[in-house]
Each structure stands twice: as C-alpha cells, then as structure tokens.
UniProtKB/TrEMBL annotation:
Residues 4-121 form the Gfo/Idh/MocA-like oxidoreductase N-terminal domain. It comes from the Bacteria. One of its GO terms (molecular function) is nucleotide binding. It holds the Pfam family GFO_IDH_MocA. Signal peptide: none annotated. This is Lipopolysaccharide biosynthesis protein. It comes from Mesobacillus subterraneus.
C-alpha cells in the first residue's frame, strides 16, 4: 500500500512532538515542512529523508500531499486550514480550531464542501484512564453525573509571551483559557456528555501584567443535564503542576491528576497510569498522547470514517471558551442556548 504523503505548516515549539509521533507511524511519509522562518522548516525537514521545506505556502499548495498538519499560531488556523482543504488535502489542525466561531464554522463548512476530512487535536481524550472512564460513563456504570471541577495551575514566565502572537487577543485569541485550559474544558465536556447551557465567569490579568489577555480565570459552567462545572485556571503558579479534573457521579467518581486517572466505582478503586511513551524534546506538561490521536486520525482516513475530533465538536469547546470571555467582559451570566 502506498504511504500517505504528509506536510506540516508551522515548525515551532509543538512541532518536535509531531516529529516524534510521525516516526512512530508506519503508514505515512513526511514530504513537506513549511514555516515563515526557513531555518525552522529546514530543521524539521531534516528529521525525514526526502522531506522538502520552504517558507512559501503557494509552493506547499502545489504539492501532491494527502494530509497537512496545521501547527501555526491560532489566528492563522482558519487561513491555513481552508487553503489546504481547497487544495485537496485532508487536515489535522492543532487546538483551538480557531479564535472565533465564525472562523471555526467557515472551516467546518469548507471541509463539508470539499469532501476533505478535517480533525482537531485534543490529545488528552486519548489518556488511557480517560478512555476507560469514557467507556464506563457511556455504558451507564456511573449512573447520573452530578458535578465536575477542574484546576490548572501552570507557570508561563514573561519570556513565553515574547513570542510574537502570544498574549494578544487578536492573535492568540485570549490567554490561559483558550491556550492552556481549553484541554480541561474539552475533557469535561467530553466526559459529562452534555452541552453547556450557561456560564458565569471572571477573568483577570493579575501577575503577568505585560500581557493584554488573562492570566487567571474562574467560572461556574452549567450543563444542559444539570451538572455544574467549577472551573479554575491560572498561568502564574511557580511550576507546571499536574492538571486536576474530578467528576462525581451517583455510583462513584473519576479523578485525573496529570495523566493518572483514579476511578472509584461502587466502592472499588482502580488507578490507571499513563502508558504513552515520553517523547523527545517536548515540554512535559503537554501530555504524551499526540501519537495516539494521530494514529486514530490516519486509521479513520484510511478506512473512510469520520476523523477525530470533528470540527463541530471542537467548535462546541470553543463556544465554552468564548462564553467564559463574554461572561467576564459583560460581568453577567451568559446563556449558550440558541
Ligand atoms: N496540543 C497541545 O498540547 C499543544 C501544545 C503546544 C502548542 N499547541 C498548539 O500548536 C500551535 C502552535 O503552537 P507553538 O507553541 O508551536 O507556537 P510557535 O510560535 O512556537 O510555533 C508557530 C510556528 O508557526 C510559524 N508561522 C507563523 N506564521 C506562519 C505562516 N504564515 N506560515 C507558516 N508558518 C508560520 C512560526 O514561525 C513558528 O515557527 C498552536 O495552535 C498551539 O495552541 C498545542
């Protein structure tokens, strides 16, 4: 079988994780790396024999590729994804799908119109214990889910925000919520299995005062099924503490600490440790599950099945992120109901 020809747009910090993941996939060959910083494109391309590189999207769009991975800054996701879909490539883009709902919907629409497959990275859905917890929830083992909370206490030094697009409403789309805690929001939505009805939130810039976006946020998020989700995130802790998420349910609870999951069900306790291998140069706080989502994406592509995570699903997570910002800016509860 011919291998799928793969390209990447954006060879920055996260690209090292992709380089490692691509080396573990047998059904692809990496043929093209694009970055406006040519040295980064070259460095990435050096991982793969026969991989071309450039700083010209026009050149990439002329190539014979099957899949392009979009790892560019948030505000460019729309442009890059739509250009690739229209050129006939399937796409897997990094989170968030976009910085606005309008952009996300335009991307989903283009995928439908072109018949190409668009997926969005939320690799934490592939943590071993999360897969088990989701399976048990879907089987009804926990009964009704009654509550949820998540807490992210991470460290982003001022130097992190010296990257040109970081710390800007226009380019990053926000701060700790859209960039870091979006993973917690997505996981809670995924596990609760209901959509958000209303949000009452506050955001602030308390410590990283050189940035215009928030470095802290808290919210009470009410789901249509009645679950109230207590959300907290900040980027000014002294280190990157493991993310914590807990769901309580009629028959037990689920606790995520980093990538370790403790499932308590009908009086029994099961602890599921992560099995994903530690990647090469990537940051330890990114979690090690990109390879799992990439494998799943390619399996679905080869078997002509819907690819994970669908644009509509990723837009729902973006709606919650943007709902937090809207509630905070209006200083009132926002209703997500149409
Ligand atoms: N899933 C995760 O856990 C995770 C972790 C980190 C980053 N990310 C995501 O990955 C994406 C990239 O983040 P990063 O931290 O690698 O950022 P980065 O700034 O380190 O890298 C972005 C790269 O895009 C390049 N670029 C900018 N404009 C371009 C253009 N017009 N054409 C081509 N290349 C261009 C930059 O030169 C840079 O090398 C973001 O969506 C981010 O949220 C996800």
């Amino acid at each position: 079988m011919n291998k799928l020809k793969v390209g990447v747009i954006g060879c920055g910090r996260i690209s090292v994780v992709y380089a490692e993941a691509f080396k573990r996939l047998s059904n692809i060959e990496v043929k093209y790396a694009l970055d406006i910083d040519l040295r980064r494109a070259e460095k990435f391309a050096m991982n793969f024999s026969g991989c071309e590189y450039s700083d010209s999207i026009e050149d990439l769009l002329q190539k014979n590729l099957d899949v392009v991975h979009v790892l560019s800054p948030h505000y460019l996701h729309r442009e890059h994804v739509i250009q690739c879909l229209e050129a006939g490539f399937n796409v897997l883009t990094e989170k968030p799908i976009a910085t606005t709902l309008e952009d996300g919907r335009a991307m989903a629409e283009t995928a439908k119109n072109t018949g190409k497959k668009l997926g969005v990275i939320f690799q934490n859905r592939y943590i071993d214990g999360i897969i088990e917890a989701k399976k048990l929830i879907d089987q009804g083992a926990f009964g009704k889910i009654t509550g949820a909370w998540s807490s992210l206490n991470w460290h982003r030094p001022p130097s992190y925000y010296q990257i040109e697009w970081k710390g800007s409403w226009e380019k990053e789309g926000g701060g700790v919520v859209i960039d870091q805690a979006i993973h917690s929001i997505d996981l809670v939505r995924y596990l609760v299995g209901s959509e958000v009805k209303s949000i009452k939130a506050q955001i602030d810039t308390r410590v990283l005062t050189q940035i215009e976006v928030e470095d802290v946020a808290s919210a009470a998020i009410t789901f249509e099924n009645g679950v109230i989700y207590s959300f907290f995130a900040c980027n000014y802790f002294t280190s990157n503490s493991p993310i914590r998420i807990e769901l309580s349910a009629e028959n037990g609870s689920i606790l995520l600490e980093g990538e370790k999951v403790t499932i308590r069900l009908n009086g029994k306790e099961l602890i599921i440790h992560p099995t994903a291998e530690i990647k090469g140069e990537g940051e330890t706080y990114w979690s090690n599950y990109h390879t799992s989502q990439l494998k799943h994406y390619y399996q679905c592509l080869l078997n002509d099945k819907p690819v994970p995570v669908s644009p509509d699903d990723a837009i729902k997570t973006l709606e919650v992120v943007l709902g937090i910002y809207e509630s905070a800016k209006r200083m009132s509860r926002v209703s997500m109901e149409k």
